[in-house]
Protein: Putative ABC transport system ATP-binding protein
Amino acid sequence: MTYPMIELTDVSRTYPGGVAALASVSLRIGHGELVAIVGPSGSGKSTMLNVAGTLDRPSSGTVRIDGYDVSELDDDQLSALRATAIGFVFQSFHLAARVTALDNVAEGLIYTGLGRAERRERAAQALERVGLGHRLGHEPHELSGGERQRVAIARAVSGGPPLLLADEPTGALDSVAGAGVMDLLHELNASGTTIVIITHDREIAAGLPRQIAMRDGTIVSDSAAEPELGAEPAPAAGGHGEWSGVR
Structure:
């Protein structure tokens, strides 16, 4: 059976004080899609990303990742899901200062249970993949903004997650560096990674195959009202039932 990579059903998220960040949102994103979620500040797009990435729980509704209802997973299973199935990229990079690019990426693999040598080997491979094989020993302050974002992307994909969630990944970059990061995300998607990009930049969104627009916590338009689901991924890519700790 083929499942959507992300499936939200009537998901709402209300914060203390009655602030409704999401209001009965339903959404399906298939394996292998490249999707932009666009909207102004306060539209609910980042909240939706956090809910889809299991960083935040909905107030109501159902969130499924590759068929798993995340409300049925315990804390260890959720940690396993995030560590092996979901990569996160944020605008502010979140790189440790005075730590090399290699070790910034390797530290992102600590919760996979791999030994230090294997973590560093995988980190080096991920940095090669994003074009930074020559910068392994450089610290964040020695890298350009575009290079720092590439390190952050390498960290996100080093464990081979089938899903990558990116929140304003070009927001802190100039146009040239931003274009380079978007090219990289297209390349990762072409290799099979499902990618969801949160952006306020409609030009970036227009360059992606699917655009979802949000306002006031709801989806107001979707260029693919009924997305075609891709083939079920191979187990090595994080297929249903193969995540460590999730059964």
Observations:
- The chain has one domain: 6-233.
- The beta strands are 6-15, 19-29, 34-38, 60-65, 68-69, 86-90, 163-167, 194-199, 210-215, 218-222.
